[in-house]
Amino acid sequence: MSTESPVAVITGASSGIGEATARALAADGYRVALLARRADRLQALADELGGAALAIEADVTRRDSLVAAAERVQDTFGRVDVLVNNAGVMLLGPFSSEQRADYRQMIEVNLLGAITATEVFLEPLRADGGGDLINISSVAGRTARPTNGVYAATKWGINGWSESLRQELQPDVRVTVIEPGAVGTELTDHITHAATKEATEAFVKDLAIRPEDVAEIIAFAVTRPRRMTLNEILVRPTAQAG
Ligand code: NDP
Questions:
Q1: Considering only Cβ atoms within 10 Å of each terminal Cβ, which end of the chain, N or C, has fewer?
Q2: Would you say 209 and 39 are in contact if contact means Cβ atoms under 8 Å apart?
Q3: Can you give the residue ranges of the Ketoreductase domain (predicted)?
C-alpha cells in the first residue's frame, strides 16, 4: 500500500456496516482508520486487513477521544480523504421516562457524535484536493413510526445537517447521505425494551439486506468522478414496504 493511497476514517468500524465498509474500501485501495470502543474487534479487523489498516479505540461521544484519534491518523497516514460517520445505536421502544438514558445516548452517538467527528476531521478532509463525507442516516430519517421517535429524530437531524453542509462545503467536500432500511447487524442487540426488541428482531430477520450491500454503495459513491456527487441514497430490502 502506497503512502499516496487515499485514507478513509470509519466510525463504528467494529461491527456491521462499518466493518463491511472498512473491508470494501481496503479492497479498493484505501488505507483505513477504524474507530470504535471495542478495541479487540478493531484490532482483529486491522490484522485481517494488514498494514493498510489502523485500529483506534475511540468514543464518538467524547471530543477528546476524537481529537486523539485524528492526531493518530495524521501521524500514521498524513491525510484524510473520506470520513464515514457510521457509529450509531437504535434503542427503540414506546416513548417513556424509563428510556430517558437511551434517548440521551442516541442523540449523543448518532447526531452529536457525527457532528463532532466532522468538525474534528474537517480540516484534513478539506485539504489535499478535497474529500468525501458519508453520513449514515436511515429510512427512519424520512419516515417516523411509533417506538422510533428519538431514533428518527437523530436521523432526521443527520439529514437536515447534511444538506446544509452539502451546500456549505462544496466543492471541497462532497456530502453523501445514505438511508438504509433493514440491515442484518448487531444494531437490534442493544434495544432495552424487551417487546420492541423481539418485534424488531423478527422484522429484520425476515427481510434484512447484508452490511456488505451498504458497504458496496459507499465504495461506489466515493469512487465517482469528483465532478459529481451522489447526495442521497435510499436503499431498502426489496421486501420492505415502509
Ligand atoms: P452495529 O451495532 O453492528 O454497529 C454500530 C457501530 O457503532 C459499532 O461498531 C459500535 O462500536 C459503534 N458505536 C456505538 N456507540 C459508539 C460510540 N459511543 N463511539 C464509537 N462507536 C460507537 O449496527 P449497524 O452496522 O447496523 O449500524 C451502523 C449505522 O447504520 C448506525 O448509524 C445505524 O443507525 C445505521 N443504520 C442501520 C440499519 C440497520 O438496519 N442495521 C438501518 C439504517 C441505518 P462499539 O460498540 O465497539 O463502540
A1: C
A2: no
A3: 6-186
Question: What cell does 92 get?
Answer: 427503540
Residue 132 has φ and ψ, to the nearest 5°, of: -125, 130
Q: Which residues does a 6 A CB cutoff place in the pocket of ligand 1?
A: 11-12, 14-18, 36-38, 59-61, 86-90, 109-110, 136, 138, 180, 182-183, 185-187, 211
Q: Phi/psi at 29 (nearest 5 deg)? A: 95, 10
Report the topology of domain 7-235.
Rossmann fold (3.40.50)
What separation in Å is there between the alpha carbon of 127 and the centre of ligand 1? 28
Q: Which atom of ligand 1 is nearest to the CA of 41?
A: 47
Contacts for 99-104 with beta carbons within 8 Å, 24 or more apart?
Answer: 99/192, 99/193, 102/150, 102/192, 103/150
What's the pLDDT tens digit per position in 124-158? 999 989 999 999 999 999 999 999 999 999 999 99
Q: Which is it for the CA torsion 233, 239, 241, 242, positive or negative?
A: negative
Rounded distance, CA 59 to CA 11, Å? 9
Q: What is the pTM of this model?
A: 0.98
